[in-house]
Amino acid sequence: MEFLFYMGDVFTPLNFGLLLLGTIGGLILGATPGLSPTMTVALLIPFTFKLEPQQGLILLGAAYTSTVAGGAVSAILLKIPGAPANIATTLDGHTMAQKGDGAKALQVSFIASAIGGLFGVLLLIFLTPVLAKWALAFGPSELFWLAILGVTVIGTLDSSSVVKGLLSGCIGLWLATIGFDDIMGAQRFIFHSSLSGGINVIPALIGLFAIPQVIGMLAKGRKGNDAEIITVKRHPIGAAFREVFSRKRALSIGTAVGSIIGLIPGVGGQIAGLVAYDQSKKMSPDSAKFGTGHPEGVIAAESANNAMVGPSLVPLLTLSIPGSPTAAVLLGGLLIHGIFPGPTLFAQYPQVVWPFINSMLIGQILMCVFGLLIAGWAANVARVPPAVMAAIVLSLAVFGSYSVQHSMGDVYVMMSLGLSMFFLERFGFSAAPLVLGLILGPIAEANFIQGAMIANATVGQLTYFFTGWLNWLLIAIVVMSVGYSIWMELGQRRYTTKEDASV
Amino acid sequence: MSDLPRSQHIIASGLIAGVGLAVAYISFTQEPADAFVFPRLISSVFAALAIWTFVKAAMGRTKVGAGLSGLEMRNMLPGLGIALVYAFWAAKELGFYTATTITFFILLTIYDPAPHGAVSTWVKRVLITAGFMAVMYGLFAVLLNVFTPREIFS
Q: Does B89 touch chain A (CB under 8 A)?
């Protein structure tokens, strides 16, 4: 119950102000199609430099939580999911809005998001210290395999092609080796003076997540945002609460599915929402009503995508292995303040970590309150033309990258990586494994070298890296995730081939 | 798969295979060898996967990635050109605020669907640009104290 001791820190005027700012800003940005939670958090990092680590993390955490929930606004009122996590919400949410139940759909979605989110953060609170103690048993070989696991799992499960997902991860791991070698001090892959200090994670994250979005918006040409926003009628909030609590099955399924999926590295909110929706539909006696504007569809999807937020931070805070691209960006936010997550994080920085986690707990309630108040208005942000949005994001990306080290080299790196990522994405590659490779590369290398030294002095490298139950477990998960993804890909291909043959 | 994406896939995967092989070559030939132990491990997998992807693309078996259509390329090229000039030249040579103002206004003018003939459209564009720049100045210069190059005003 140590977290209760730090609860008061959330309510200092500055911390609470930042929490409010992050929550309201996140809701508005989340409602904007094209601005994903990952990109929003990446663009926000430069604004945390002047803040204390505790305050910076509170702002980033609030923005993360509320952008996920804010995405439901455009999903319901415009049928455009604000983020991939809100895809399942459009299925019933937009139909409800078309039937004149837009306000009810929004209220139900925010209440379900808050309940799912609260459960997810509680899981984070109670699971993280336990896992942190367990993580102390990890030596260099286990940490090496864990880093490789982080890259392979996200590379195989987050990508539409296993090979391209793994290749993206390899590119990220290679990018992480650019610069001076830590042990020998040798230069590695320094093709330009901008790379002499290696690739700074923050400009890289901004480039990889923001620039492809900018170019994507430009590729649409001279186009306005003519999406029709459905106006909402008033709906009593008490009735919305009764609606959510009368549908305990959907709420429980969504919350449970989201929490479990959040703990698995690489499986994002999009999967959580869709799996929860599918399971609720299968287990509901009213399954025929799903897709026709059934509140259970909204409740399951929204409780799931917010329930996964807290658990997705468990591997980050205990093992310094980010479980999702947004967690990877948050890791960047921690590193910029000189905080290295890991098993000793709670012992070393309780004054930073606990207020951050507590703020996510309070943030869920604020997100629900402000979501209900500003949802109808926030939908208008979606009307901003893509050209304006592209120009804003591009400028923020350039200023944000520069402000990290006051270096033009960071701007060049940001732009080059962003441009490359845009083309890579068009050919089936994915930013998530590349980012994980870039972030986990130094962890993997440091532990590989350290492990190799220990192994050479003791049992030999093969025995050191390939024996022990924890090594076996991690290797088995790596192999299983690759095998499962290949099996799924082959299955899909067989299905496609059969379809082709029948035409 | 149409011919355009197929040729695009071959070019893209060929470039990646080239990078993969170059990284592997450098990793296995550069000294001191101890500094390249991990890059050797990574580059071997990188090169193998990149070659595999290239061979699949050359055989026309690439299943994912829609490539870029001619329309998309035509749409994005002016904006992309401006963005590259902004980031790689103008921001440093003209100063961040001057370069951002010009870039923002040009992007808005090129991509805004509103008719160019109406005076109100231009007034709106100028007001949006000015408003945005005021916010950027407030955030970065006043709030965060980020000292950016201000070349033509320095």
A: no
